[in-house]
């Protein structure tokens, strides 16, 4: 939880209930593509196998706290979309750990989670963002008070089921029914 | 818990059809149109190239996919690409590939190099094409790509029949000139027919393209080591500064 990043999502719809997003570290032309997110409606989320549900996170808090904003979009229109996002679940992988100062996308994909309650987010991060984007988070919170999260409540398995999750690399033998790679070995 | 090489549990979201879900409502279309007009969308407007090629799952090299890369060049040595399963507007976002020059690649630690693949073969064999771009126009970029290395994480195994992106990411490898890295002829024919090209015919025009003098034995890891890679997602302690969730 101590490692947090600002993320700029560029999303498109596969249909009304599913979106896919590219995640960048800034809204500028030279922004780095650091990851991706898939967003599904509550209905689609409920069809996922239980093991899969743990990899997804809820959006209710992010939306209602004002942390999630759609820059440049007038409030009333923004809120129309956010009402839907509020009930949705997302699955995010980041491939480039820019907060570590990595100048290249090194290592393994990282499964990301979202903020789920007050006290988790790093305030400096938020203040910085708020200033740059011109967001008054307190005002947004009030404007979004009326919104409702998932109809069935946040699923207990979402958000990692409350546990941390990490990715680990494993070498696998190539299946036997495949011919072995070229027998020439290079000795260096 | 979740692994690249384990089939996800039963779910209705299986099959070859598009993702489940209701069709876009008029309201949603209008929000999208509004957003497109009001927001700058700069990062995604930087995609300057469309490349079509093939990729192979590193943990199961019998599984190959046609890929559509939409690439942005951040500098002379670096490209970042969003990878889709087609060039249609309803294409599925399969993952992300990063492409770096051999100069940058050489400086990576060996453990990192294992996750990368070379591009020389797929460029020179004609498997990688720049759809609808004449060879002579594409040549400069092809020369860059032939000397480059890529790292491609696939987060949606649509070829497995996943109608939604399930499970852990998969590390992808590139086609090579030896089994099991040889591109499946049926996939190549299907792609060639779509774009009215003949991949084979590019071999001649691309013969002279320079490739890296030596491809690191850590890249294309399966070639020297007969092993692939899978990702496991496992429980871990989360460092918390507040209760979660």
Automatic annotation (TrEMBL), chain A:
It comes from the Eukaryota. It holds the Pfam family DUF1264. Belongs to the OBAP family. This is Oil body-associated protein 1A.
Automatic annotation (TrEMBL), chain B:
It comes from the Eukaryota. Belongs to the OBAP family. It comes from Stylosanthes scabra. This is Oil body-associated protein 2B. Residues 1-27 are annotated as: Disordered. PANTHER family: OIL BODY-ASSOCIATED PROTEIN 2A, PTHR31360. InterPro entries: OBAP-like. Coiled coil: none annotated.
């Amino acid at each position: 939880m101590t490692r947090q990043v600002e993320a700029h999502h560029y999303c498109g719809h596969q249909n009304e209930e599913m979106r896919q997003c590219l995640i960048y570290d800034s809204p500028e032309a030279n922004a780095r593509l650091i990851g991706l997110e898939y967003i599904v409606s509550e209905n689609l989320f409920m069809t996922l196998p239980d093991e899969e549900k743990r990899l997804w996170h809820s959006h209710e808090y992010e939306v209602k706290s004002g942390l999630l904003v759609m820059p440049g979009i007038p409030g009333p229109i923004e809120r129309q979309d956010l009402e839907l996002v509020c009930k949705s679940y997302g699955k995010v992988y980041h491939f480039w750990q820019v907060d570590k100062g990595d100048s290249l996308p090194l290592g393994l994909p990282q499964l990301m989670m979202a903020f789920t309650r007050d006290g988790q987010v790093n305030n400096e991060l938020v203040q910085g963002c708020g200033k740059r984007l011109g967001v008054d988070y307190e005002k947004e919170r009030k404007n979004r008070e009326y919104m409702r999260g998932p109809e069935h409540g946040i699923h207990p398995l979402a958000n990692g089921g409350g546990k941390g999750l990490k990715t680990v690399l494993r070498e696998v033998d190539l299946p036997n029914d495949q011919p072995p790679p070229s027998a020439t070995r290079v000795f260096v | 818990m979740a692994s690249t090489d384990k089939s996800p549990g039963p779910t209705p979201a299986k099959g070859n059809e598009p993702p489940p879900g209701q069709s876009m409502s008029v309201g949603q279309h209008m929000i999208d149109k509004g957003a497109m007009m009001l927001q700058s969308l700069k990062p995604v407007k930087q995609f300057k190239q469309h490349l079509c090629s093939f990729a192979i799952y590193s943990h199961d090299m019998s599984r190959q996919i046609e890929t559509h890369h939409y690439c942005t060049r951040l500098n002379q040595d670096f490209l970042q690409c969003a990878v889709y399963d087609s060039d249609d507007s309803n294409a599925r976002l399969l993952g992300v590939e990063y492409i770096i020059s051999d100069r940058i690649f050489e400086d990576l630690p060996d453990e990192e190099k294992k996750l990368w693949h070379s591009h020389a073969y797929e460029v020179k064999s004609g498997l990688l094409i720049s759809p609808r771009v004449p060879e002579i126009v594409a040549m400069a970029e092809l020369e860059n790509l032939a000397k480059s290395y890529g790292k491609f994480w696939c987060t949606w195994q649509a070829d497995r029949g996943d109608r939604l992106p399930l499970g852990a990411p998969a590390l992808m490898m590139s086609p090579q000139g030896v089994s099991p890295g040889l591109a499946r002829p049926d996939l190549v024919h299907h792609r060639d027919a779509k774009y009215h090209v003949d991949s084979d015919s590019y071999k001649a025009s691309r013969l002279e393209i320079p490739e890296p003098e030596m491809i690191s034995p850590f890249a294309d890891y399966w070639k020297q080591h007969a092993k692939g890679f899978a990702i496991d997602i496992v429980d871990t302690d989360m460092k918390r500064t507040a209760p979660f969730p």
